[in-house]
Amino acid sequence: MLKQAVYTPFSPRSCRPAGWLKRQLEIQAAGLNGHLDQMWPDIQNSRWIGGEKEGWERVPYWLDGFIPLAWLLGDEGMQARARRYVEAILEGQQEDGWICPCSEKEREGYDLWALFLICKVLVVYQDCTGDPRIEEAVYRALRQLQSHLDSRTLHNWGAARWFECLIPLFWLYERRPEEWMLDLAFQLEIQGFDYERLFEYWRFERPYEKGRWSFVSHVVNLAMCLKYSALYARLTSRDGNAEAKRMIRLLLRDHGMAVGHFTGDECLSGSGPLQGSELCSVVEAMYSYEILFQLTGDPEWADRLEELAYNALPAATTPDMWAHQYDQMTNQIECSVFPEEEKPFRTNSGEAHLFGLEPHFGCCTANFGQGWPKLALSALLKKEGGFGIGAIAPCSAEGSVEGTAVRLELQTEYPFEDGYTLIVSPERPVELELDLRIPGKALSAALDGRPVSGPVFRLCRLFAKETRLEVRFHFAPEWVSRPSGMVCVKRGVLLYALGLEAEETRLEYVRDGVERKFPYCDYEFRPVSSWNYAFAGTELEFHRGRIGKFPFDPDCPPVWLTAQMVPVPWRRTGGCCAEYPDSLEPLGQPEEKRLIPYGCTCLRMTEMPLIADPREL
Predict the structure, then answer these.
(1) Least enclosed by CB within 10 Å: which of 63, 228, 243, 332?
(2) Sequential DSSP letters for 458-515
(3) In the chain, what are the domain boundaries?
(4) 615: pLDDT confidence band, cut at 50, 70 and 90?
């Protein structure tokens, strides 16, 4: 038997985004992710649908976000496009259950990571549609996988990501339990990477030398593996939550970023503000935190999910989501191609931080679309006898408890608002248990004006009619010391940065048969405002505006802070600033500067020195 999860998500059929979150999903649908099947050869002409292009991870990656996006928005045109791919995948499944697009001869060397991924995608599709064929297709694919592994072993990405197969495998076991499925879970663990030992004998206090690439130090593998222990613990007596916490603490201790993620460009790269982190690792860490919160109920994972979703994810795309970065940098003063000898990245190319169609490599192009839809499905959650709140975001859902239909509506502008309203509308009187989440950064919280304690306040009561629950919390700006010796500023879940005005250059060209053409071209951004500042004093003032056309808009941020700052000598080499100023000698008088949410920035300074007010020197 599998241990039960604390929470389970609603189906996209019964969950609807609202407010700014719906707008963000609409922007995604109107941008790059919503059009890849119409202009990117690896999706448009993939072997998964009978074409000649890539027949491995890119179509599954894309569908993993595109399918829930289409159903969350109720967009029939997008749904029809998704069905075309799923139909081709089902029709391509072989008699023996093999489902990936390769010949019998190619199976021997085929990396099974794509098999794990496509089975996950089919589960997502079934959740959206209820298609009765999916269960049998996944059953046959996984049964064939067991046979395949009897005479072969996992290798490469399949070995590094073996635990991802547990997601469709456990989904299947809960629907039609058979003993061979548990044997397959054991088989996967035995053949896959041993992450428990990797973290027990931790060898990554410092990053590898520049140029060295490794599966075991790869940032996306490590972002994914955060959930492995909790997933496999469903079969064992191990404390998967404790293991996951040990893993994230080591990663953040040695490679942590101000944004709450860990570096990896492309492998673990230390904690400096110039090191990047791959967008794939952001969305995969988000997914790990979603799974961890659902399995364990530990609110730490919801806090970590929000930190990435509301900072690192939007920072890695343009506001209209037509372009994305492969690597994002904490202090990012320019996005133009680095000369090879000047790039700060350890293994990635000098174009990895450009905003574009597929800077450096196309995996993030296909994969980044899962971020926002899966976040929407992680807000309102089901639990035994009631419901819970995971990520705080505007949405609604319809469920039932003891045969009584209940509609939930989460009204909020969080993270740009310090609270939310939960509207509970039962069909008839019913006893409910509600887990009301309080962000970990909240200094205090109140329910309907009465103080409550967090991080989860459990409310058990009879709901006889529509009821509004008003949850408010109090945040204050905080100074956070960084390993660089500099500081950054946070308020609640949001990280703040000095946003830089930028001059945009569009790059339209063809490379390796792939066209970049506006709006899906590449973009360079160069600063046209000063960036060489230090904080001059500790006073910070919070301001609230309104959410504009784009929720994460550098020109119209919903919230901001003002601070006294002073220019200091700070060297620049090409498109990159030095890690630390040449000195803290002020070059002028203090100025009031605006700090905006990190997620609203393309160019920014985030980690900066804190010095005394120069008028007092």
Answers:
(1) 243
(2) EEEEEE-S-EEEEEEEE--EEEEE-TTS-EEEEETTEEEEEE--EEEEEE-EEETTEE
(3) 7-192, 380-412+419-474
(4) very low
